[in-house]
Amino acid sequence: MFRHSDLLLITPSDYHPDPIACPDRRAKVAELGEVTEWPIVLVSKTSVGASPPRVRIPPSPLCFRNRLSTNPSKAPIALSELICRCHGYSGCVLFGETQVSAGGRLLALDLGQLHGWIVAELTRKRPVAESMAALIDQCETAHPHSDWAKLRELPYADLSSLLEWVREPFRDEPSASLLKGLWFGLFNPCPDGRTPVVDIYVCGSKQFDPDPFDNSWAVGPDWWPDSRYANSAVLADIYRIAYRYGAEQTEQKDCLGNDAEYPLVLGYGAFAVRELLGRIEPSKLLGRSDSLGVAVGFDSGDFVLVGQLVRNGLVPLA
């Protein structure tokens, strides 16, 4: 799938005035959490087309009214900005420039194939660093580039900070609701208000659907802890290397872009979450729930089902 520039537009009237309060189900508005049944444009983190048969791609698990404006008199808000406002950031970018070759052809890996590879790799249960090395091998074979060497050097094996991140919200802000699903969302915040990176957060829902093509169960989370963000240095560095932040503009034009961001961010998020859940006593995450379906994915596109967390640990979904 290719990156496109702010193709989805949402008007100010569609933006919930209090996005942080939005997940509070006591004040739930009927329209909040609606999803588009069939996206009418390509989505930046999706490996399939806009309207393929039998595939449903909700835009995000966040709470906002998802209506496309047809009224030109209204000043539009880009979807990327709206999603970031829901997260409490401003000035974010979710959709970058389309990558085009000198001959005018769109450049990208076969992201659908890589998505399938990541799903299969999850079942192999290899250490995160081994899975990431194998994933980069796949990417570099299809798209040779000097920046893959920099991406190989990132400390994928060190999950110490992420381990504390996962523990904290369950320990300090346990859900008052009986949850059925956990969503680990990948998105593009701008911590300094100017420069986007990638991060991951955790939230929970009172519903879960094991359908690998439908994550609408995660829209409008019922558990939205204050400490949900990981502030992952590895994810941020993947993004910076992928787009050659700090380089001259002429060098940035030759960046890997989404060919690195999509597979490495989705892969690292999925592999890390799988391993982290294996290191924590399940009862500390389950609370009163007997089981929790677990998914990792982009707020703006594709996701993978990691498994089902039960009292004995993380197991494959039935």
Task: Describe this entry's structure for a reader.
With 318 residues, the protein is of the alpha+beta class. It has a domain at 111-315. 30% of the residues lie in helices and 11% in strands. The protein is built from 9 helices and 7 strands; from the N terminus they run ββαααααββααααβββ. It has a 5-stranded mixed β-sheet. A two-stranded antiparallel sheet has the order 1-2. Strand 6 (303-310) and strand 7 (313-315) form a beta hairpin. Helix 2 runs antiparallel to helix 3 (128-142) and helix 2 (111-124) runs parallel beside helix 8. 42% of the residues are buried. The model is unreliable at 1-43 and 48-107 (pLDDT under 50).
List the helices and strands and how they pair.
Blueprint: E1 9-10, E2 77-78, H1 79-86, H2 111-124, H3 128-142, H4 148-152, H5 160-172, E3 181-187, E4 199-205, H6 233-242, H7 249-252, H8 258-279, H9 282-286, E5 292-298, E6 303-310, E7 313-315
Parallel strand pairs: 3-5
Antiparallel strand pairs: 1-2, 3-4, 5-6, 6-7
Helix pairs in contact: 2-3, 2-8, 3-8, 6-8
Cα radius of gyration in angstroms: 19 Å
Based on the structure, what is the oligomeric state of the protein chains? single chain
Instruction: Supply the helix-strand structural class.
Output: alpha+beta
Estimate the mean pLDDT confidence. 75
Largest sheet: 5 strands, mixed
Mass-distribution shape:
globular
Poorly predicted tracts of residues: 1-43, 48-107
Going across the biggest sheet, name each strand in turn: 4-3-5-6-7
String of helices and strands:
EEHHHHHEEHHHHEEE
